[in-house]
Amino acid sequence: MGQTYNGEAIRNFYNNYGEKEWVRLDLTPYDRINFHLHMKLLQEHIGEGKKVLDAGCGAGRFSIEIARAGSEVTLFDISDEQLRIAEEKIKESGLTSKIDKIVRGDLRELSSFEDNTFDTVVCYGAPLNYLLENRQKAVDELTRVTKKGGTILLSVNSKWGVIRNQLGKADFDYVSFFGQPDYWFINEVAETGDLPVHEMVNHPSRHFFEAEELEEVMKKAGIENIQIGGSPCLTSAFREPAEKLAVDSTAWETIIKLEEQAFMKRTMADNGEFIIAKGIKL
Ligand SMILES: C[S@@+](CC[C@H](N)C(=O)[O-])C[C@H]1O[C@@H](n2cnc3c(N)ncnc32)[C@H](O)[C@@H]1O
User: Fold this and answer.
1) SS3 of 209, please?
2) Across the chain, what does the average pLDDT equal?
3) Which of 88, 153, 212, 280 is 20 to 30 A from 270 (CA-CA)?
4) Which residue segments constitute the domains of the chain, with CATH numbers given?
């Protein structure tokens, strides 16, 4: 393990990150594919009468959709600023009445919530990557607060996806990056999944997952009927082609349909920028 967990560093990072987190899933056509696939998996688990926890909700991109679907949503995050933005965005959408609670806390310890509280628990967009050695504890907690028969949905940044992402960057010095594997901790990430704090990377340390590893953590937490895939899938790291496809409605619909068909294939899970998964607490 390159680095141990530092909750205060994560809190500070996301407090300073501010509104950038809100635009993350709507910036480019590529980001919209990613958002679409995350929603596709979530859709059937939200709606009237459902009590939903959005854990590591960030600026509330998914919280708003959960509220719009008619569910009662609880927002949970370590960053006061992200919670403030999420609350503001939900208010602007006229959905404040759908907020049950707003809780600032750490995913390692969901002590504000009783066992078996939520119909659906969502932890999307990589909060679990920051948990490092506490990842099992966090997924255990997410499972504890889910009702029996309820669904847990997770997405994490993938180890192979993050490397593939470098290859998909525009105007990037690929040779300088792959030519300095020690400096960029490339071998460390490939072997352990851990990326320590780096002078050129503006992030707290993270652990990048393989699909098998995420599945193992979910199984250990008592989650069953696990389905696991990759998002974006066929277009993973292909930001420029996504940009071009978006200008033609038929081409765009075709790629979206193909993505929907492919993204939850088990064999695609390690291909995505995100590994996305769901399962049931029986
Ligand atoms: C990339 S954002 C994802 C936000 C949102 N779920 C989405 O998909 O748009 C990651 C969020 O996880 C939160 N987070 C990271 N570590 C956390 C922890 N230990 N406990 C609670 N929240 C955490 C951060 O503050 C940040 O808002």
Assistant:
1) strand
2) 96
3) 280
4) 7-281 (3.40.50.150)
Ligand 1 binding site (Cβ under 6 Å of any ligand atom): 7, 10, 14, 21, 25, 56-58, 61-62, 77-79, 82, 106-107, 124-127, 130-131
Residues 6+ apart with CB under 8 A from 224: 279, 280, 281, 282
Which tokens in the block code for residue 107?
A: 């995913």
Q: What confidence tens digit (pLDDT) does each residue in 46-89 have?
A: 999 999 999 999 999 999 999 999 999 999 999 999 999 999 99
* Measured distance CA(271)–CA(119) in Å, rounded: 30
Q: Which atom of ligand 1 is nearest to the CA of 108?
A: 19
Give the DSSP letter string of 43-79: GGG-STT-EEEEET-TT-HHHHHHHHTT-EEEEEES-
